[in-house]
Amino acid sequence: MGASLQAIRFTLSILLFGALASAAIAAPSGYSKEAAPIPGPTLAAMRAKDTGPSSPILMRVFKKEAELEVWKKTSSGRFVHLKTFPICRWSGQLGPKTKEGDRQAPEGFYAVTPAHMNPNSAHHLSFDTGFPNAYDKARGATGSALMVHGTCSSRGCYAMTNEAIEEIYALAREAFAGGQQAFQFQAFPFRMTAENMVKHRTEAHVAFWNQLKEGSDRFEATAEEPIVTVSAGRYAFRRSADPVREAKVAARWAEEDAKTAMLLAEGRGAVRTTYADGGQHRAFVSLARQGVSLGDVSRPEALAFAGREVVVIPARPKPIQVAAAAPPAPLAKVWPAAPDLPTIQGTLRPLPEPVSLFAFVPFNPATADPERPVPGSLKILPARLAEMTPLTFAPI
């Protein structure tokens, strides 16, 4: 789920829609649109991921990135990412739907049942997201027929191309045929990372988004469908029956909290992302710029003002790290090389004994010890006179 995986997903999206010439693409010959088979490459991807057409599915939608993910359950009971579909159009702003007619595409956790599948949709094929759920009803939200459908037009829906909705519809159809009674549809304003939460921390919906992040983190940590309830007017999530998986959830929360604290300490800025009326995946932006028709696109003029970021809190400039200047190294003293002799003294000739002009002589030569004279018993005389004996003069 890192940056490299995101790059792969984007590449797959481009490959999927690079040859798109129209949003209205017919089902394979011999099949009605609602019975179109799952494409061969997608079946091969299932086999490689230890899953199959009849295995349960789960879907996730991210508004800002305009992506719909399909996940499949493996024999181990864990969900694996199968495929990402770029969203051709969604409407409104980031944030939950609150009332009929606000053009908001829903955000939250929903259950899609076979009864929500509509093979006769006015938008090629569709399924209802299940809005309003228990949480929406608890806060008085209104609205109906919030769909994932074909045709690149939205009034509160997640609109795909016809080709994309056929494959998504087939994946859900086969999972229901395999016995799945309902699949979870998770809808988010953006990928629920610590970076995005810090970036949007001043938004009016941040408390609601923190609830969504709790469920998103639980799924990211365990690859297990979160059991969603509503308690005291907020989303709540049941603990995993597996203590190992629950420990992974706790580790994920601690890691995200640490990242959040680090980003805030770094002085990351905050923005408000605005839309004139929703957005679309950058793959379709690229196609539109090339003159490729996407069919019936709702409010195309609004797309020029999609995803603009208004700075609310400027990022704190990072201090410029200037390396402290090292003190100048002392000048090294260069001494001439010593001669190759045992000692330097061995190279010096002994000096002759200096000729003294004076000598010490005892006052009483008969009793004085010349080696240990008694203090006051010596007389300093010129050396020539000291050699004269006997001494007949008195001390001074």
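Second entry:
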Amino acid sequence: MERDCGMAEDKSLLKQIREKELEMSVKVDQARNEADHTLEQAKKESLALITTSEAEGKKAANEFFLTELEHIRAEADRVQAVAKEEVKVVREKGEKNVPHAVERIVTIVLSG
């Protein structure tokens, strides 16, 4: 009888171990599922962050481009205005010298 009692205890102990193993297996599966979910969530959040960062970077680059383009246009307008003024000054000087140049040319042609 002692033997039967010992075997019953062994079976009972074995049964408890199996139950604990099953319990731990369920907990491991739950932890794995939670980890997978957390990883998936982190991937989604990082993708959203990358997308937002890229959009903000493009917006900032475009704003910088437009600002610099405006500066360049303003500088080009200034250079063009200066060039027009220089052309005007040279033309006025040339027009002042036309009568003198004509007189000189006539003198050279007639004397020659």
